[in-house]
Amino acid sequence: MSKGLRATVAFLVLLAPAGAAQARTAQASANKDLRIAHEVVASINDYAQFTVFDDVSVGVENGIVRLSGNVTMPYKRNEIEKRAAAVDGVREISNKIGVLPVSMLDDELRNRIARSIYGNSNFWDYAIMRNPPIHIVVERGHVTLTGVVRNNVDRMLARSLANQFSAFSVTSKLRTDAEVNDARAADSD
Predict the structure, then answer these.
(1) Is 0.90 surpassed by the pTM of this model?
(2) 88-121 burial, b if ≥16 CB within 10 A, otherwise e?
(3) Can you give the residue range of the structural domain that contains 157?
(4) How far is Cα 108 from Cα 92, in angstroms, rounded to an integer?
């Protein structure tokens, strides 16, 4: 073997452990972020004032928690941030949670849609859950459905039930269990 090739092979052998160490460090960081995300979500779901009329998304990267979505009252935004900050390993919070405008018409629309969806026999299993999975966000007469449902039939039925009221628009961002599982599998690759 030539002297130059031996030096290159030796250099690559020395780099291999460093590359493996970096991969382990990156995997450990990803696992820590995933743990933090699960704990933040659990903390939000345990918050008694978090209802089906609020919607918060959580993202974590290198210990920095990104909160986004909408809540019905300013104190909820602040309390959710405090709860997220209390999770072990959180380095920083980026709170982009919006507060929905106070509106009696929006409140009435929220309640009518919630009664329609959760009062429908197809959604009774959802309604008895501690934190029902279909969230109804209403802002100035515009409705957005978020959360997770079992299948596409439930997604279409929820949207249809929400559409029967005089909302300016109804947008469904509902995802099925299968879509969520596919996204998790893609993230773990």
Answers:
(1) no
(2) eebeebeeebeebeeeeebeebbebbbebbbebe
(3) 104-180
(4) 37
Please state, in angstroms and as integers, the Cα–Cα distance from residue 136 to each residue in 101, 116, 119, following that order.
14, 11, 14
**Could you tell me if residue 189 is inside a domain?**
no
Same domain, 92 and 124: no
Report whether pLDDT(85) > 60.
Answer: yes
Q: CB under 8 Å to 110, separation ≥6 — which residues? A: 53, 136, 138
Would the pLDDT of 137 be above 70? Answer: yes
**Alpha helices (H) in the chain, listed in sequence order:** 3-46, 74-85, 104-118, 124-127, 152-163, 177-188
Q: Is residue 188 part of a domain?
A: no
